[in-house]
Amino acid sequence: SYDLNVSLKKDNSFIFEEKKHFDFYLAEDKVNALKGNGLVVHHSFPVIPGKYKLTVFAMNSIGKEFTFFDKNIVVPESGNKPVLSTPVLAYKTETQQDTFFFPYRINDKKLFVDPGKNFKLRERPFLMVGAYNLSHDLWEKGRVIAVLKVLNERNQYSRTYEIPLKLLNYHNNINILQKLGDAAGLNPDYYEVKITLQDATGKTLDTQSASFSVSPISNFGYPMETFNKMRIENPFYFFSVLAGQFE
Question: Helix or strand or coil: residue 186?
């Protein structure tokens, strides 16, 4: 049983505070896996444009163990400037047929995310990145380039993935899912992937990057996870949260 407290502070004022409760149930034969691999609590909420201090506090309401972190975040104004979202790395995906929203669901795919960004031997991570504020011309002629490299000067491994935006259905906000590595998977090492959004002339409009590691072990477990769901056809919660922040 977990309690989650989230707050957003702008200068000296709190514009958002929320408390969530998560009940997590598992079979008796899964207890050792939980002890060995841990638990991830997923949560998400919308934020109006601005610069904030985010604070997250989570506690086991029975055992009283707790963890917390804070972080400065920037939510840009929506507009005409094309941008890339913060990349997300996942160790697997699953197709979802329901109409629920929950964290790390992208279109009809659920992403399974390990916060440690550590992957098994020969595993191929999934990279998710969004290209937002796209004009029709940029969608038709632009592309996203992802360059995967090893952070080891003695290893020259490098792979480039070019994704023309027009391969996806047109929308001013597009989410791209790309599998990294070769068919044989990745060798143990530290990796970095650099992503650029380019127009028809090859001009770079925005850049992002993400790093991860591949373990020499092929049989370790990933954390269990818990999260709350809500129906996509009832978006009033998101509008209510944004309205409260504006107020």
Answer: coil
Cα–Cα distance measured from residue 83 to residue 105, given in angstroms and rounded to the nearest whole number: 20
Angle at 81 between CA 76 and CA 84, to 5 degrees: 70
Residue 30 exposed, middle or buried by CB count within 10 Å (0-12, 13-18, 19+): exposed
Cα→Cα distances 176→36, 143, 161, 197, Å: 33, 11, 12, 12
Pairing of strands 143-150, 189-198: antiparallel
Helix, coil or strand: residue 169: coil
Catalogue the E-assigned strands of the chain: 2-10, 13-22, 39-41, 50-60, 66-75, 83-84, 88-90, 92-95, 100-101, 105-106, 109-112, 118-119, 126-132, 143-150, 158-164, 174-179, 189-198, 204-214, 224-226, 230-231
Residue with tokens 């200068």: 11
Neighbouring C-beta atoms of residue 104, cutoff 10 Å: 18
Phi and psi angles of residue 43, each rounded to the nearest 5 degrees, phi first: -155, 155
Identify whether the C-beta of residue 33 lies closer than 8 Å to the C-beta of residue 224. yes
Return the pLDDT at 35: 82
User: Within 10 Å of residue 198's Cβ, how many Cβ atoms?
Assistant: 20
User: Would you state the pLDDT for residue 39?
Assistant: 84
Residues paired with residue 94 on neighbouring β-strands, in sequence order: 110
Q: What pLDDT, on the 0 to 100 scale, is given for residue 77? A: 82
CB atoms within 10 A of CB 5: 15
**Pairing mode, if any, of strands 224-226 and 39-41?**
parallel
**Mean pLDDT along residues 182-203:** 95
